[in-house]
Amino acid sequence: MTGADYLLPFRTRLRSMRTESFGADPAGARMERIRRSPHFVDGAFQNPVGARTRPSGSTVEFAKIYFHKEQRARRTPTGTVPVHATTLADLATPPASGLRLTWMGHSSVLAEIDGRRILFDPVWGERCSPFPFAGPKRLHPAPLPLAALGSVDVVVISHDHYDHLDLPTIRALAGTDTVFAVPLGVGAHLERWGVPPNRMCELDWNETATVAGISLTATPARHFCGRGLRNQQHTLWASWAVTGPEHRIYHSGDTGYFPGFRDIGAEHGPFDATMIQIGAYSEYWPDIHMTPAEGMRAHLDLQGGRPHGVLLPIHWGTFNLAPHAWAEPGEWTRDAGEEAGQTVAFPRPGEPFEPAGKLPTAAWWRGVSQPIAHPWRRPRGAESVSETSRGDMDLAGER
Predict the structure, then answer these.
(1) Does the pLDDT at position 129 exceed 70?
(2) Are 381 and 388 spatial neighbours (Cβ–Cβ below 8 Å)?
(3) Which of 23, 128, 193, 203 has its CA 20 to 30 A from that of 82?
(4) Looking at the predicted structure, is the pLDDT value of residue 39 above 90?
(5) Can you give the pTM of this predicted structure?
């Protein structure tokens, strides 16, 4: 920075310091389209119901919990995560049922649906951060190199946070023929990173694009956006309903619970499978991420209020993003599924499965987890206090 640079407006200087990972702000015709959106009010995109997008409570208290040595230890595996090394052989044969899902970790899922391949929120980078030397680092490797994944018909992005929109991954995919389906405004980032506008479907909520015979609808979510310190809320966040000739699936992206799940289910469901965010929750941000219990409730809402299809838990196990124990989302979702009578799949990262076939259900995380408290469990019948207390703490692999 030269002496003359100090004469520039502060906003201009901030922009000059932004690396390419920060992406680009919407402008021109894209910004005009954003201003016309019914969801863009008072200069920012709005949630379907009110939501606090900044942590509530005491910052000091949160820091004490988050950086406490023992608490930090709970948030990482005690050993090597048992990743399934996805191979070409795993994906070479089309799914017998017409629908196969492969969770690659966090919110990244390869969905093979009715002869097409859709890749949700692909993140192959080592850190979800604008910097290669700082920020949350992967707790397990990607199950296979991105180049070995093969051709993809559509890449679907839920929003522009770093753990869902990854520059190195998008750069690699930009060199292929894939189409990108993204919420309104997110296309500005992709254009800066080399994705041609004619390979993008940029959608507002409740808008639909059809790619290779598959309908992709951007549906509402309760979250927020932004890749820098100045968060202008000029890029939209979304969940996605995807419909093929024979199957329907849903990807929640990041969201807090809200009544709109019932409307999405009534319009686009019921779904053969849902991919629901159940991790990175906290009492400090209750409106923008769901607990496993809320995730189960969202799934049931999407299915018309009854158990149906298969729930695939996402947004957990790969990055350390919240104060809860690393394996807690898996344990809690397992309990929530049993209580609701809902089928839940628990694949290892990289393990393909067909929702209509044999499901992976083993609690694979217990072998590399510290003991997990179960404060969400309801007391069972006439159990004594001591028995109930004992049942609320499971050693990894004990159950």
Answers:
(1) yes
(2) no
(3) 128
(4) yes
(5) 0.89
